[in-house]
Here is the input.
Amino acid sequence: MNANSRQLLNHVLVQKRQELAPELSEQDYFEIFSAEQILKNFQLSYDELQAGIVDGEHDGGIDSAYAFVNGDLVYEDFDTSSFRSNVHIELHLIQSKTSGGFSEATVNRLISATRHLLDLEANYAELTQYNGSVKAALDCFRRTYLELASKFPSLKIRYYYASKSASTNIHDNLETKGDELVDLAKALFPDADIAMEFLGARRLLELARTLPQTTHSLRVKKNLTDADAYIVLTPLSSYIDFIKDSEGQIRGDLFESNVRDFQGSTEVNQDIADTLQSETVVDFWWMNNGVTILASKATLSGDTVTMENPQIVNGLQTSKQIAGHLGPDPDDSRSVMVKILSSEDDETRDKIIKATNSQNRIQPASLRATDRVQRDIEDAPKTVNLYYDRRKNYYKNEGKPRDRIIGIPLMAQVIMSMILARPDSARARPSSLIKTDDDYSKIFSDHFPVSLYINAAVLLRRTQAVLRTRSEMTPRDRTNLRFYVIYWLAASTTGSEVPAPPSVAALQLDQVTDDHIEAAIDAVWAPFAALGGHDDAAKGPELIGSLRQTISSNLSSQTPEAQS
Here is the structure.
């Protein structure tokens, strides 16, 4: 049976890599595959999965690391200010091996890394035995945990050791080593929920076969039915069951289309909490606007509504207050009102999302995925066989190749690097780059030629492909350099220190060869290395200042004939 599982898993990995990521090595793809299966319930995009890869020399036995706060992935610029109470933090550390079985030596490395990197008082500058990627990932977790310490968050830490060649049976000595690792982590975080799991071929196959749940049921007490729509009253306990997973955590995938994140202890949210806690005479739904759910299909049978691909597009604040302040008490007779609308038409769905979020003041940038410009950008890259993921994971779920998908945040980083000459901001603010209306309007505009976004997607894909061939660079180096390389290419090719959108849109990228990209990498690599070759160099102002000065000097030294 173990031999069959290994053989089947090998076939799955070969086929999936060929379909989705032929540019990756077997080991690199297995790291993505393992993380995707282990964290399937978080519905991470390929960009998010890649951001957690820390593999390389001196990684301490950690190939990938992901931290979450209330189900949201923690980035380097993660904003903790909106979290007020009921905070749940998770840290998932994964070791992925394509060769050999489980090894005690690997667990020993994890023990050593835990002792050093999860110590909240450790000075990372002194831990030179670990690479920059793993230190950055774990320091991001430490910083987030400390910033939220006053909220007394619950903490869950999971270690995973995945090996496609390992058998199901775990040797006693290995189990003992795993227990030693867990005990060490518990000594550092006594109140945390900590465990380790060994994932052999059979377990990895089980995870791969488990599809994310797309059909969900909600029990109702009363309903009003119209064509493709229902207005229902559902018991609070039933609604809690609907929005939580089997482990009791709020299912983040239900809220991906909600335009606002949880707002914390606002006056309105505090009123909702007070009502839930103390008001038992007047039913909850009398005092609350309720929840709107958009589904691709919804059917009512008896006292149950069954929905396919449901998204809570309005009511995140209400939902999280219900989940945070109540348990699934069957004796609680109160209800929440839920509007359920079904449509598979993309434009109709976008109108519903925007309309149901217009009764309160919302920053226009929060509605960016439904903007006309976003729909136009989505259509444009298809002409060059690329896919703009304005709806997170839409094309991933369609089975499109990994390196042909670009999401809204990554597109924003590329455009900011090219037409605003701000690759430093693009690198330093991966998740908050377009939170303000001002930044958003400078990057996504109906006034820009749509070919600007096509060229951005093509240039990103080609730059990343050439960077992968540079064996002297670590994955962290490539992450740090890619936006600078794209800036250099745009500036030097258009002949402008700050390229104008029409100029970038007009670029004929078939005339930009791999040799040009190699030269751009060399031009960026030298000053980056001179500044220390670390994250701070990529996020600070010195590198872009140096590059702009060089670009300006090169342009001014050209003859008018050469410039023309």
Observations:
- The first helix runs from residue 2 to 20.
- The mean pLDDT is 88.
- The two ends are 69 Å apart (CA to CA).
